[in-house]
Amino acid sequence: MTKQQFLNELNRLLGQIPEGERKDILSDYEAHIDSAIENGKTEEEAVADLGSPKTIADELGVFVATDKLSGSKKETTTNVGPNIFAFLGMLLFNLIFILGPVVGVAGAFIGLYAAAFACLITPVAFIINLFTHDTPILLAFFLILATFSFGYLFLLVTNFLAKWFLKLIHWYWKLNVKIVKGSN
Fold it and tell me: Where are the transmembrane segments (predicted)?
C-alpha cells in the first residue's frame, strides 16, 4: 500500500472525527512515513510498519470518544436524577414483566434446536438398523430422507424465528436506552 492510499483510507475511516483533528492526525502519520523513508525504508515498508488503517482508526476513534465523554461531563451531571429514576423504573419493569417471558422463549428455542438436531441425527440410527436388522432398503431410504429433510426444515424455521426474536430483543433494548436517556 502506498503512502497516498494509506492516508486516503485513514481519512475515510476517520470520517466521524472533526476535520481539524483529522487533519492533525493525517499530518502526523504523513510525517512519520516521510521520516521512515528518509531513514532508508521504502514507502511500502514505512506504511506496513504503521499497521492497518482500520486498526489505527478504531484506536483513534476510541480515544476521541473518551475525550468527548470526559469533556461533556458537566453537561450530563446537571440532569442525572430523572435518568436514574427512569433506569430504576425500567429495571424493575423488565425484571418483573419481561425477564420471565424472555427466558421462557429462550428455553423454548433451546428445545427447538435440540429437536431439530435430533431429527438430523436420527437417520444414523436408521442406517445402523439397516445393517443390524432385516429392514427393507426402500423403507429405510425413505425414512432417512424424510427425517433428515424434516430436521433440516425444522432447523431453518427455528433459525428464522430465532433471528426475529433477537431483532425484537435488540429493538426493545434500544427502546429502553432511549427511555433512560430521556430522548423521544
Answer: 84-103, 110-131, 137-162
CA angle, 112 then 164 then 151, to 5°: 30
Choose the final residue of a domain: 75, 100, 121.
75
User: Do 56 and 10 contact (CB within 8 A), yes or no?
Assistant: yes
Same domain, 13 and 101: no
**Contact predicate 68/18, CB 8 Å:** no
- Tell me, yes or no, whether 65 and 26 share the same domain: yes
pLDDT, tens digit (0-9, with 9 covering 90-100), for 3-17: 898 888 888 888 888
CB 132 within 8 A of CB 124: no
Give the domain extent around 134. 80-181
- Among 75, 93, 117, which residue terminates a domain? 75
- Tell me the pTM: 0.52
- Helix and strand element counts for the chain (H, E): 8, 0
Q: Within its chain, how far is the Cα of 92 from the centroid?
A: 27
